[in-house]
From TrEMBL:
Annotated protein name in UniProt: Transaldolase
E.C. code: 2.2.1.2
GO cellular component: cytoplasm
SUPFAM superfamilies noted in UniProt: Aldolase (SSF51569), SIS domain (SSF53697)
Amino acid sequence: MTSLLRQLHASGQAIWLDFLDRQFLAEGGLRKLALHDGVTGVTSNPSIFEKAMGHGDAYDPGFRAALAQGDIGAQDLYESQAIEDIRAAAADLRPVYERLNGRDGYVSMEVSPYISNDTGATIAEAQRLWHRIGVPNLMIKVPGNSAGVPAVRQLTADGVNVNITLLFAIEAYQAVAEAYMAGLEARLAKGDPIDRIASVASFFVSRIDARIDKTIDARLAAGDREAEALTALRGKVAIANAKLAYAWYQEMIESKRWRNLAAQGAMPQRLLWASTGVKDPRFPDTLYVDTLIGPDTINTMPPQTMAAFRDHGTLAQTLAADLIGAQNVLAEVDRLGLDLAEVTASLVSDGVNQFAQATDALLGTVAAKRAEIVGDTINTMTATLPEALRQKVEVRLEMMRKEAWPRRLWEGDPSLWTGKGEDHWLGWLAAGQERQVDPDALVRLREHAQTNTNAVLLGMGGSSLGPEVLARILGNAPSHPRLHVLDTTDPAQITEVARSIDLEKTLFIVSSKSGSTMEPALLRSYFFALSGRQGDQFIAVTDPGSDLEKIAMNDRFAQIFSGDPTIGGRYSVLSVFGMVPAAVIGRDVMALYAAASPMVLSCGGDVPPQENPGLWLGAIIGEAATAGRDKLTIVASARLEPLGAWLEQLLAESTGKNGHGIVPVDLEPLGDPASYGDDRLFVHFALTSDVDAEQEAKLNMLEAAGQPIVRISLAQPERITQEFFRWEIATAIAGAIIGINPFDQPDVEAAKVAARQLVAAYETAGTLEPETPVAEDENFAIFALQDESAPDDTVIAMLRRHFAALEPGNYAGFLAYLERNASDAAALAMMRVAVRDARRVATVAGFGPRFLHSTGQAYKGGPNSGVFLVITRDPDPDLAIPGHKASFGTVQLAQARGDAAVLAQRGRRVLRLHLKKSGGGLEALQAAIAAAL
Ligand SMILES: O=P(O)(O)OC[C@H]1O[C@](O)(CO)[C@@H](O)[C@@H]1O
Ligand SMILES: O=C[C@H](O)[C@H](O)COP(=O)(O)O
């Protein structure tokens, strides 16, 4: 006997399958249904793909095959597999489509629910899928909300078959029916044929009852007086609503407007009953099939509903029957205040959200699968967090998912931050995808640079720290110049570099985004003069239109590389600012991007926060900071140690403002658990080939003592580029959590202004404004910045009082305007350890003026928990600057004085200590601090 389903098909209603799955297709399931049961179509939606692809391992071979062609992100990976299924289903139904001459045999694929409020994006995505899938028996599903309606019109006009989904209200259905007709008319106006354009209007059924019945049940439970009338409506409203929609359809196809279109070959936009699986187990499982049978309609059924109807469905022409009854049901709905309009409206947005949640879950699984498959190309990260922090991070990640942070970040939604133009500063996202550089120009530069033995980069902050990390971690390739980075005004340091290079075989890279930063400008004057004004030994890296660009043209520099003004300095390492120096030292820039790429894809806008390494890290550091663990302590195995200086700037300058932020702690030797308070978050970087057993053991002890530890491991040094990107994302996200704009640096300018004023005064007066120490001995002179000194203070007493001010949660800062060399760094490290262990506080150190363009922002604008010792000394020997009265030494001193003054003005606890020429230098200071603690 013919199956009930076949009979249903023969009665004039098309049967579609509301399901898709690779295994089912591979086993010929759809072909069998078409053959035996008369199934003539398939619908899919994000939930269906989530069920198919988001669990188990059926798609693993597909994922592997797709990734074997090249790494792609989660969305593309999902889409590659979804499209394969859609194409396979379309191929199975192609004979039906041909047999019915395009009247049926369609497979539907839905546009992303993420763009459902954006008409333009919906049109673009529908067009893209339509062309990419490239089969005639395809329908693109577009939601029937207010953004979807114009898309339906446009897509129809463009010849795309559209299935309009998420229709609950008759008015919404009428709007899309009108849009379909308007689209067909637009085609006719262009002279395009309309006889092969198909469309269906997916009218949802069971979800309406599920919602209304819930309200009814609640009212019954509350003892509503209308109990009987309410009970009578259970399981009735959706069907009545669908019947009235069908009644309108019948009127519509009799209209003059439609008849005119039909005369020119138009196929009617059929009503499709969707959501026909019963949600309430108390209802018969064939309820939404039995009651909605009528010609020229479609019922798309989940497999269970289809099986149930095949088994015990009731076949009768029910759809057009008892219209009065349907009207009465809706009148009752009104009378009882069940507000169908509100229900159907909220079901649309809930439907979009539900599909978005399914897509989040699906992309999460796909991202995890991808990470597993390409796993050994991605740097690993683990986090051991105290329970309270772990929970906060979990909550934050879920909140980020709900609020679509990954997508909003990549789309540049300023409301993630303070809403004040942050979207103009996101060029680094494209830079990470190698979109900011000209690869050929960098290949040529790499070749050209080989004629040199040395390269000297003159720049500050973002223009110098990234290049320094690349040069120190990767080193120069054989036969390429060695890179020296000069980000100072310290005469000894400048002299040291000048002495160590062969001037004629040195390439100078003048690097400054703004092109007006004082230090690189002075260094350029110095080395340009020293080179005998050999412009062809200089290249400039700067943003378009800067002063440096003009000077470089004037002085006939060999080349000028232009930056992207939508990238702030500290986010610029994956743009020309990092890649030009990388090419100069002989690194294959495209290989560096290729090394970064797996992380860039993993951090994509299509990867939900839980699986997104950048968002996960951002959640950890942001939540840690807001919970008082704002001292992000960087620990690195020897080879990766240089990364800390870059990271310090990124974190401090991005987040340290408005009294909030993260204080990075770099190069502080690791101590025992007893040395630390509860204001730390430790981040460990290690190369797998460079394991430091002692360091690991100490970290394990800290972990056992309950300190939060994030561990990041790199299999190859080139993958440092992944950390650049991961941390840029994480910093931007932490900034959003902290509630600041992570792309400005409002407090840096003040110190620059103060220094510039002092230098200008020097240029006229020939001397810096004299100062009188408030305390001195044979080694040191202390200069007052606040009125905290008593007339009879000794140096030791002042130091004692200075360090005694440190309270739990504070940090001690050593701001040294000295030569940055190994011995000075070691001496500072020892002083830090002494202070940390005595006061149980974090310690930071910076060499001036380098740190001014980096951590200086957070010291001035971040939390007021720093206690700073500004260390200066008289330069010996000093170094003249061509064309200036002021020497480098004078400028450096002016910068220190300006910095200390601004710190004091900002209410920071600060002491300036000057090392006397005749004194014992840093060694003596170490002893004095030991005595003062
Ligand atoms: O590249 P530029 O414009 O010379 O700036 C150098 C550095 O100075 C700062 O503007 C701080 O003064 C940093 O943000 C920046 O990285
Ligand atoms: O096109 C089909 C719809 O997406 C589907 O029928 C929705 O069904 P549900 O309400 O059971 O999720």
